[in-house]
């Protein structure tokens, strides 16, 4: 009788824990970007945040969604990818608006032309992903260019996946690329900090939440017997997070350079 009573109590508790873990997986991944988003909006300065983080996450989560069609994994991971894509687009929108606003005067000085009447015409440069200029890749002046790039990548990879969906080798390779790309999430920020010899403008709270979230996620993968690619790349992601935290410690002994609003081709690759 007592055993039945204990089981009656443990059953709902297990269900609540399961729901809580699933909710943490779905929404926990986007929480680190809340303090970074607020910092950028408050300071109107996006120089310290690498927008290539958004690129990495967009590519990783699009590939993960396509991987789901070939090998059905747990639905919380699928919903996490959908919500992460929306979050990264919002981050890109804010960063683009802030960068264009800050660079407005510089563009007026740097990009000018003279017509046949010798009248000076000043206009910002028009760049799109169709230029394939590496100096300006992922550094466009309009948010719509980013959306076009993401839609193009999604369309091409979806078509290829549709053609090769029956190949188990392709599906497993797709899954590996999805989680490996996500594991490289912190590398653009790591490189950006190394270039600047500073973590100025980067939200330390974001990195701390990366570390705790990636640790929880990796344990979740292992306990729920997720595909092996997920667990291996989760561990790699934790190591990258720790390297960024080490940068925070090391660079704290150096004078922090003020983040500049000036953008030029030589520095755009780090954005």
From TrEMBL:
GO cellular component, one term: trans-Golgi network
Gene3D superfamilies: 1.20.1280.290
Record's keyword terms, sorted: Membrane, Repeat, Transmembrane, Transmembrane helix
Membrane topology: Multi-pass membrane protein
Xref: InterPro entries: PQ-loop_rpt (IPR006603), SLC66/Scramblase_ANY1 (IPR052241)
Membrane-spanning residues: 16-37, 49-71, 77-95, 146-165, 171-191, 229-251
Pfam families: PQ-loop
Subcellular location: Membrane
Gene Ontology BP annotations: phospholipid translocation; retrograde transport, endosome to Golgi
Name of the molecule in the record: Solute carrier family 66 member 2
Species of the source: Penelope pileata
């Amino acid at each position: 009788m007592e055993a039945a009573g204990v089981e009656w109590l443990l059953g709902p508790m297990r269900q609540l824990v399961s729901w809580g873990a699933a909710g943490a997986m779905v929404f926990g991944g986007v929480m680190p970007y809340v303090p970074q988003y607020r910092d950028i909006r408050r300071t109107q300065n996006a120089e310290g945040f690498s927008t290539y983080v958004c690129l990495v996450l967009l590519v990783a989560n699009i590939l993960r969604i396509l991987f789901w069609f070939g090998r059905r994994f747990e639905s919380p991971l699928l919903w996490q990818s959908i919500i992460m894509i929306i979050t990264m687009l919002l981050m890109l929108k804010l960063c683009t608006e802030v960068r264009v606003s800050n660079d407005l005067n510089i563009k007026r000085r740097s990009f000018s032309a003279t017509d046949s009447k010798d009248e000076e015409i000043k206009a910002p440069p028009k760049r799109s992903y169709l230029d394939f200029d590496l100096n300006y890749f992922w550094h466009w002046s309009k948010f719509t260019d980013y959306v076009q790039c993401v839609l193009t990548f999604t369309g091409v990879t979806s078509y290829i996946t549709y053609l090769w969906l029956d190949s188990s080798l392709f599906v497993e390779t797709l899954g590996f690329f999805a989680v490996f790309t996500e594991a490289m999430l912190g590398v653009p920020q790591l490189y950006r900090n190394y270039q600047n010899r500073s973590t100025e403008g980067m939200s330390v709270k974001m990195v701390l939440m990366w570390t705790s979230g990636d640790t929880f996620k990796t344990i979740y993968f292992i306990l729920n017997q997720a595909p092996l690619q997920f667990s291996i790349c989760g561990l790699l992601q934790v190591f990258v997070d720790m390297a960024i935290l080490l940068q925070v410690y090391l660079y704290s002994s150096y004078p922090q350079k003020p983040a500049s609003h000036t953008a030029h081709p030589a520095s755009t690759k780090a954005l």
